[in-house]
């Protein structure tokens, strides 16, 4: 009887450790201002999002963007096929945050786990961008309009980065925010549709 109880306790302990390890591996961060596609899915503003509605913080992919990182057409999902709904342009119908070129803006991330951070980089689409087609590097200005260095420090539960929305844009555009992790080979990706 004692052996059975001992085995059950060990089994429960292993199961609990697996759940804890899995939960922390899936917890990271995403942008909430401007509202990212994954945040819109998590809030239920956009439906038919698949797993991303439960894990908006988990869009993790290879770092080194734009020279490396996710393949064209998979940038918003971080190259993760499990979150492919984020790369679906939905005929250009993703809800967009209204912005004005030249305005000061508080770019905001929400985190569920903190990591040693290299930096945060923000990119904006160029004049070739078509919101009805999946995003490629050719549709982006590959020079970030905002870089926030962290030099290995960790953000708290939220981070707010003050920057300026680039001027000279019209219509619907896309901001790609990249959180580069210092001590892994990955980064987190967050795409936010904006309307100028």
TrEMBL record:
The keyword DNA damage is annotated on this UniProt entry: no
User: Where would one find the signal peptide in this protein?
Assistant: 1-27
- Keyword Signal listed? The answer is yes
What are the protein's UniProt keywords? Signal
Entry-linked Gene3D superfamilies? chitin-binding protein cbp21 (2.70.50.50)
- One Pfam family, short name please? LPMO_10
Q: Where is the Chitin-binding type-4 domain?
A: 28-194
Annotated protein name in UniProt: Chitin-binding protein
Can you name the source organism? Actinacidiphila oryziradicis
């Amino acid at each position: 009887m004692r052996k059975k109880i001992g085995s059950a306790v060990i089994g429960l302990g292993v199961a609990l450790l697996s759940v804890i390890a899995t939960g922390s591996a899936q917890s990271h961060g995403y942008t909430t201002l401007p509202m990212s596609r994954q945040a819109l899915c998590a809030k239920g503003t956009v439906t038919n999002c698949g797993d991303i509605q439960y894990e908006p913080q988990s869009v993790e992919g290879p770092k080194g963007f734009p020279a490396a990182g996710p393949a064209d057409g998979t940038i918003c999902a971080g190259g993760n096929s499990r979150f492919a709904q984020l790369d679906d342009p939905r005929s250009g119908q993703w809800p967009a945050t209204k912005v004005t070129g030249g305005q000061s803006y508080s770019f905001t991330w929400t985190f569920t786990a903190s990591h040693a951070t290299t930096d945060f980089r923000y990119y904006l689409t160029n004049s070739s961008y078509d919101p009805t087609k999946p995003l490629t590097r050719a549709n982006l200005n590959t020079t970030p309009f905002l870089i926030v260095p962290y030099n290995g420090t960790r953000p708290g539960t939220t981070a707010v980065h003050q920057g300026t929305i680039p001027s000279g844009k019209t219509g619907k555009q896309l901001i790609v925010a990249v959180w580069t992790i210092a001590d892994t080979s990955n980064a987190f990706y967050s795409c936010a549709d904006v309307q100028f």
